[in-house]
Automatic annotation (TrEMBL):
Gene3D superfamilies: 1.10.8.50, MutM-like, N-terminal
Native source species: Rhodococcoides kroppenstedtii
Pfam families: Fapy_DNA_glyco, H2TH
Formamidopyrimidine-DNA glycosylase catalytic domain residues: 2-118
Catalytic activity as recorded in UniProt: 2'-deoxyribonucleotide-(2'-deoxyribose 5'-phosphate)-2'-deoxyribonucleotide-DNA = a 3'-end 2'-deoxyribonucleotide-(2,3-dehydro-2,3-deoxyribose 5'-phosphate)-DNA + a 5'-end 5'-phospho-2'-deoxyribonucleoside-DNA + H(+); Hydrolysis of DNA containing ring-opened 7-methylguanine residues, releasing 2,6-diamino-4-hydroxy-5-(N-methyl)formamidopyrimidine
InterPro entries, A to Z: DNA_glyclase_Znf_dom_DNA_BS, FPG_cat, FPG_N, H2TH_FPG, Ribosomal_uS13-like_H2TH, Znf_DNA_glyclase/AP_lyase
Keyword match Hydrolase: yes
Protein name: Fpg/Nei family DNA glycosylase
Keyword Nucleotide-binding: no
SUPFAM superfamilies referenced in this protein's UniProt entry, alphabetically: Glucocorticoid receptor-like (DNA-binding domain), N-terminal domain of MutM-like DNA repair proteins, S13-like H2TH domain
Family of the protein in this entry: Belongs to the FPG family.
Domain annotation FPG-type: ranges: 239-273
Length: 288
């Protein structure tokens, strides 16, 4: 799933490539992605693109006083095409969900596609006058890169939950998902199952500084990359996430995994849990 660094990079990419362009035809290949009907999607056609922005893990494109907001969910992505097909896509064929044709001031006719891999289709698109009309945006907590340390500490103290749960809760902090929470906790040498109430002031400070360092580093590596290369860039920067069975780059221990029904997370026992192996939820209860 694209998280704060990748969505920030996609917004930056669109600001560099789409601002000033006029939106032409919008092809919808999967009707299920549209979550609003007023204003209609066609209201954006013929309008100049004036902005692109990130709202938590949502991506927004502004044109004609309207916002097209996208949540890419787990399998979604944005693809830029310099020479798109002029033929309308066939609904339900392939990963394409929606295509936005553009006319640039230079006279080119590129397009950007919203695509979704896999069989579980969760990619969502809204057309709204104000981004806060999107329920997921209206419920967002402060952005993970905008929150100050005192507020961060207050947010942690207000929740009596496991650190992993709090970091991915978008109503607490916006922008962090499964992958970067794994990386933040590993770098801060904290167990995913440590509770917020157990943290000392020093641990809270270290977690805050680590969160900012991990995210800012990922943003710096991602912004400026071609949209097609962002997934590989994200993977290359990971120390433990999606690296089950590999050696921890810090201590050399084997990276372990805890799996749930439809997701999993990774950690290093030596760096994070004092050498203890957390039980896989598929097999037994969690070891605290």
């Amino acid at each position: 799933m694209p998280e704060l660094p990748e969505v920030e990079a996609l917004a930056s990419f669109l600001r560099d490539h789409a601002l000033g362009a006029v939106i032409g035809r919008i092809d919808v290949a999967a009707l299920s992605v549209l979550k609003t009907f007023d204003p209609p999607l066609t209201a954006m056609q013929g309008q100049d693109v004036t902005d692109a922005a990130r709202f938590g893990k949502h991506l927004g494109v502004q044109a004609g006083g309207l916002w097209m907001i996208t949540h890419l969910s787990r399998g979604g992505w944005l693809r830029w095409t310099d020479n798109p097909s002029s033929a309308a896509p066939k609904p339900g064929k392939g990963p394409l969900a929606l295509r936005v044709h553009l006319f640039t001031p230079e006279g080119s006719t590129p397009a950007f596609d919203l695509t979704e891999a896999g069989t579980r289709k969760r990619l969502a698109v809204w057309v709204v006058r104000d981004p806060n009309e999107v329920p997921g945006i209206a419920r967002l907590g402060p952005d993970a890169l905008a929150v100050g340390e005192p507020q961060f500490a207050d947010l942690l103290r207000a929740k009596s939950s496991r650190l992993k749960t709090v970091l991915v809760d978008q109503q607490v902090l916006a922008g962090i998902g499964n992958a970067y929470s794994d990386e933040i906790l590993h770098a801060a040498r904290l167990s995913p199952f440590a509770t917020t109430g157990s943290l000392t002031d020093e641990a809270v400070h270290e977690l805050y500084e680590t969160m900012r360092r991990i995210l800012l580093d990922a943003v710096a590596r991602s912004v400026g990359q071609d949209a097609a290369r962002l997934k590989g860039e994200k993977r290359s920067g990971m120390a433990v996430h999606a690296r089950t069975g590999e050696a921890c780059p810090v201590c050399g221990d084997t990276v372990r995994e805890v799996s749930y029904v439809d997701r999993s997370f990774q950690y290093c026992p030596t760096c994070q849990t004092g050498g203890r192996i957390l039980a896989d939820r598929r097999l037994s209860r969690l070891v605290k």
